[in-house]
Design goal:
InterPro entries: DUF5062, DUF5062_sf. It comes from Colwellia psychrerythraea (strain 34H / ATCC BAA-681). This is DUF5062 domain-containing protein. Mean pLDDT is 90; it is low at 1-5. The longest helix has 18 residues, at 14-31. This protein has helices at residues 14-31, 43-56, 70-84. It has three helices and no strands. Helix 1 packs across helix 2. The protein is globular and about 35 Å long. It is 51% helix and 0% strand. It has a domain at 41-84.
C-alpha cells in the first residue's frame, strides 16, 4: 500500500479557478440555507467550510484524513469548479 502525501497535479489557472470556486461555492451554500461569509472570515475558513459542504453533499470526493490540508482542499475546489465550467471557458484554456 502506498504511504505518504496525496499527489496532486497543479491545474493551469488553479489560483483563478479557486477564486471562482469560492464565489460559486458561497452562492451554493447560501442557496442551501447557510449564511454567507462575513468580511472577517479568513480565506482558510472559507476554503475548509466549502470543501466540507461539498463533501457532505457528495459533490466532491473526500480526501483521506491524513491529506486534509489547505493545499489539497484548494486543489479539490479548483477541480470541482473546472468540471462545472462550460467547455472552452477562459479559465480552462
Amino acid at each position: 500500500m502506498l504511504q505518504g502525501r496525496y499527489s496532486m497535479k497543479k491545474l493551469k489557472n488553479e489560483a483563478e479557478l479557486l477564486k471562482k470556486a469560492l464565489t460559486i461555492g458561497e452562492k451554493y451554500a447560501v442557496n442551501r440555507g447557510y449564511n454567507s461569509f462575513s468580511a472577517t472570515n479568513s480565506a482558510k475558513d472559507k476554503i475548509e467550510s466549502l470543501y466540507r459542504l461539498l463533501v457532505n453533499d457528495k459533490l466532491i470526493q473526500a480526501l483521506a484524513v491524513e491529506n486534509e490540508d489547505q493545499p489539497n482542499m484548494k486543489h479539490k475546489l479548483a477541480l470541482w469548479i473546472a468540471k462545472q465550467l462550460p467547455e472552452g471557458h477562459e479559465l480552462l484554456k
